[in-house]
Design goal:
Rossmann fold, six-stranded mixed β-sheet, 24% strand, seven-stranded mixed β-sheet, Dihydrodipicolinate Reductase, domain 2, binds adenosine-2'-5'-diphosphate, 32% helix, alpha/beta
Length: 336
């Protein structure tokens, strides 16, 4: 059995990664429709050696597609996801637009695949935020074994999370600054080259950013537990690909350190790199592959139930494209 797949946002960073990952994972694609705005309609993109022309999403007949992978921004999904869903195309949406809707499942396949069944409510499934996905993979085995009272997390997020213009901005600023030329910033609120910015997305009334509140709300929804206290600070760093996170948790029950280590060694989708002073980094380990790497695992000297870890993952892959395609794989294996 093969499926017709539509990729909306096909010319973007995540869209291009989706196209590559569909081929790499040998997803059973029959026809592939590549959709974007009128700006890039007519461009050619290669898939499995074949050249496919990008179409304008405006006017596209979604009844031709079984599955739609959307990553063209929240307002684009707001408009086109219901149109596609009504036409019988099951939408897997990478934007934040539908994530908090109680009718719409929010899924990390290794963590809450069973939640997928609810896709029938609206024919839409939401893919979580990149920072939430990697944190969930690292914390789920510990949550299941000991419970978690509180999560304190600081992120170090790559510019690719903000799209291709953001990647270009870091590259241009870096080149300009190294050549003593003036630089300007359009995508980021401050200079990102050789700098660190403690703001991702806009501010909410409580002083947290929207990105930070995504980590709070999505953690509650994915684990099905609103009692976990989540306190995030999300920071943009001058890294092209790969998000890093410094995570401190307080478990509900006392934990056994060696057991936690074993749980993480056995957990799906993660790899522990923690021997002899070694640890993973975004660029040297995570970038370009689908694994979530964990290191710096250590008992918190300031709290009896505290535990620290460092978690890195490629935000455009497991944080976006790969997770969406894994959702599609679950869908065709169990529901279609
Ligand atoms: P386009 O190339 O036509 O602008 P990124 O996240 O890397 O910035 O990519 C955003 C993706 O979303 C691109 O593929 C872009 O297509 C697409 N996109 C942006 N706005 C729209 C829109 N209004 N309608 C359809 N696709 C859009």
């Amino acid at each position: 059995q093969k499926y017709n797949v539509a990729v909306l946002g096909a010319t973007g960073l995540v869209g291009r990664q989706i196209i590559e990952t569909l081929a790499d994972r040998k997803f059973p694609v029959d026809q592939l429709f590549l959709l974007a705005s009128s700006r890039s309609a007519g461009e050619d993109i290669k898939f499995r050696g074949e050249t496919i022309e990008v179409l304008d999403v405006e006017g596209f007949d979604f009844s031709q597609a079984h599955i739609g992978l959307f990553s063209a921004g929240g307002s684009v999904s707001e408009k086109y996801a219901p149109i596609a869903a009504d036409a019988g195309c099951i939408v897997i949406d990478n934007t934040s637009h539908f994530r908090n809707d109680f009718e719409i499942p929010l899924v990390v396949p290794e963590v809450n695949a069973s939640g997928l069944a609810d896709f029938r409510n609206r024919n839409i499934i939401a893919n979580p935020n990149c920072s939430t996905i990697q944190m969930m993979l690292a914390l789920k085995p510990i949550y299941d074994a000991y419970g978690i009272d509180r999560i304190n997390v600081s992120t170090y997020q790559a510019v690719s999370g903000a799209g291709k213009e953001a990647v270009d901005e870091l590259a241009k600023q870096t080149a300009n600054l190294m050549n003593a030329r003036p630089m300007d910033n359009k995508v980021f609120p401050k200079q990102i080259a050789f700098n660190v910015i403690p703001q991702i997305d806009s501010f909410e009334d409580n002083g947290y950013t929207r990105e930070e509140m995504k980590m709070v709300n999505e953690t509650h929804k994915i684990l099905g537990d609103t009692t976990i206290a989540v306190n995030p600070t999300c920071v943009r760093v001058p890294v092209f690909f790969g998000h890093s996170e410094s995570i401190n948790i307080e478990t509900r029950m006392p934990y056994d350190f060696e057991h936690v280590k074993q749980l993480l060694k056995d957990a799906p989708g993660v790899e522990l790199i923690d021997d002899e002073g070694d640890y993973p980094t975004a660029v040297s380990d995570a970038s370009g592959n689908d694994t979530v790497y964990i290191g710096r695992l250590r008992a918190d000297i300031s709290h009896p139930h505290g535990l620290n870890m460092w978690v890195v993952s490629d935000n455009t892959r497991k944080g976006a494209a790969t997770n969406s395609i894994q959702i599609a794989e679950e869908l065709i294996a169990n529901y279609m």
